[in-house]
């Protein structure tokens, strides 16, 4: 039961559930990661501080 609390976000008991339904290629994943990093490093982070 403890495994559910290890960064799974309550989505499921196993890490397999965090994997995307369809296998994304690195070319598809990379741009998405960049967008997430930009959002985290952008105004959203500033708003949290304020």
From TrEMBL:
Residues 1-50 are annotated as: Disordered. Residues 29-38 have a biased composition (Basic and acidic residues). This is Uncharacterized protein. It comes from marine sediment metagenome.
